[in-house]
């Protein structure tokens, strides 16, 4: 039987936003930086894809003595995945594609203890106002969208384009804290024992 009380939490992610969200809810954790192949499998549905990557990161980042938490976030518009833009043209195109449109943000979260794994995918709807070419250019030049799925950050300057959200704000940022807490509790983990400064 796994002694969860003796386990520590490992965030298997290089995202500073996910670390900030875990700190926000008071959890004490370590961080690993897993490297996984993020190439979609041909015909793979977006929700299956993001769940697979979350679990892959959790498994790669796992080490003995830890409960590993992996996550991945994607933007889906008209059935197509929008990853991180590779250059200015792509970043500006992404933002202009989302202009005056509603898109989906999917975040997969997985927990792995070395034997057992559980995962969940949270989907939120995000509606953007109309974005002019000049705004898209200026936003790219700000540097913020360069490493963000879909080419924007809702927790930053990108929030000025967001007209409406339906779903989890923290999932859009990168880690749905409600569902993450529930996943950890499904492993019979008393999350209060993991909380720092509480």
Task: Explain what the structure shows.
By secondary structure, this protein is an alpha/beta fold. It has a single domain, classed as Maf protein (Alpha-Beta Complex). The chain contains 6 helices and 7 strands. α1 (16-24) links the parallel β1 (8-12) and β2. α3 crosses α4 (133-141). The longest helix has 16 residues, at 46-61.
Level of helix content? 25-40%
**CATH class descriptor:** Alpha Beta
Instruction: Determine the mean pLDDT.
Output: 94
Q: Which percent range describes the beta-strand content? A: 25-35%
Major beta sheet, specifics? 7 strands, mixed
One letter per element, helices H and strands E, the order comes to EHEHEEHEEHEHH
From the 3D structure, determine the CATH topology. Maf protein
Provide the gyration radius in Å: 17 Å
* Overall CATH architecture: Alpha-Beta Complex
* Number of alpha- plus pi-helical segments: 6
Distance between the termini: 28 Å
Q: Report the count of strand segments.
A: 7
The 3D shape can be described as elongated
Q: How many separate domains make up the residues?
A: 1
Q: Give the oligomeric state of the chains in this entry, treating copies of one chain as homo and distinct chains as hetero.
A: single chain
List the uncertain runs. Answer: none
């Amino acid at each position: 039987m796994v002694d969860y009380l003796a386990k520590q939490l490992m965030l298997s992610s290089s995202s500073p936003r996910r670390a900030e969200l875990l700190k926000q809810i008071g959890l004490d954790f370590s961080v690993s930086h897993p490297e996984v192949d993020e190439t979609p499998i041909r015909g793979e549905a977006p929700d299956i894809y993001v769940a697979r990557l979350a679990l892959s990161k959790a498994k790669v980042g796992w080490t003995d003595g830890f409960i590993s938490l992996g996550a991945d976030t994607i933007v889906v518009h008209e059935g197509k995945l929008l990853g991180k833009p590779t250059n200015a043209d792509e970043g500006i195109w992404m933002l202009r594609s989302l202009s005056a449109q509603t898109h989906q943000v999917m975040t997969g979260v997985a927990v792995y203890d070395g034997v057992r794994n559980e995962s969940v995918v949270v989907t939120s709807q995000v509606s953007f106002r109309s974005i002019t070419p000049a705004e898209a250019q200026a936003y790219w030049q700000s540097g913020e969208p360069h490493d963000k799925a879909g080419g924007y950050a809702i927790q930053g300057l990108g929030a000025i384009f967001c007209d409406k959200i339906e779903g989890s704000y923290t999932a859009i940022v990168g880690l749905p804290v409600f569902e993450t807490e529930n996943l950890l509790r499904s492993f019979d983990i008393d999350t209060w024992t993991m909380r720092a400064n509480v």
